[in-house]
Amino acid sequence: SGATGTADFFYREALRLGYVARSAFKLIQIQKQHKLIAPGAAVLDLGCAPGAWLQVACQNLGPLEKGGLVVGVDVKQKVKVPSAHCDSRVRTVCTDVMALMKLQARAMSPQERGFSVILSDMCPVVSGITTRDEAISCELGMRALSLAVGKIKVKESADYRETMERFQTSTGPDPDEDGVLRRGGSLVIKFLENEDIPGFNKFCKEKFKKVSLLRPKATRSSSREIYMICEGLR
């Protein structure tokens, strides 16, 4: 079938070009269309295993003298930084993103000034129980969002309030009001398609100048993942 054909194409291309996973092409497409990672950027990659997004992020930092940093976080054992496409600006930390405090996250950033780009390719270990997988996906998304923008405050009258409040617990007991994404920065969150996405979308539109949804070409046809791309934190 055509679906397997494209999957194989991206898999083969990943091998040929030295990427550790075909998911590299998802970030390549996001970067091509939105130019989120500028030379010298400070990038936080949540759920970074096996490291393909670390490779693509590093490739977009520009020459070494531009500086910049890519920090990958994953709950699995400390992810090995791939040798291809990565240089000394890439490092990984083994920690549970659900328990990561903003203070810890900020401490990983250059001069502790926060990050210019936060990427979340985190996904639940799919159980096949759709509602459960969707809920975990939203919890992870909410976690990435609150790390980025800080305390989630929702107006009483907001029509997306219910969505935001449903996942409020995922923001964790983090006393820090401020997020770790710099003003003007960008955030990418992977979701499994579900009915709460419009709520997240509306909330993000108040926080960011531009919000768009993308299903990258390298996504398998059987997959329900979709990426929310938020640009220009207000």
Automatic annotation (TrEMBL):
Residues 19-232 form the Ribosomal RNA methyltransferase FtsJ domain. SUPFAM superfamilies: S-adenosyl-L-methionine-dependent methyltransferases. The keyword rRNA processing applies. Keywords: Methyltransferase, rRNA processing, S-adenosyl-L-methionine, Transferase. The keyword tRNA-binding does not apply. It comes from the Eukaryota. The active site is at 190 (proton acceptor). InterPro entries: RNA_methyltr_RlmE (IPR050082), RNA_MeTrfase_FtsJ_dom (IPR002877), rRNA-MeTfrase_E (IPR015507), SAM-dependent_MTases_sf (IPR029063). Pfam families: FtsJ. GO terms for molecular function: rRNA (uridine-2'-O-)-methyltransferase activity. Belongs to the class I-like SAM-binding methyltransferase superfamily. RNA methyltransferase RlmE family. HAMAP family: RNA_methyltr_E. This is rRNA methyltransferase 2, mitochondrial. It comes from Aegilops tauschii subsp. strangulata. The lineage of its organism: Eukaryota, Viridiplantae, Streptophyta, Embryophyta, Tracheophyta.
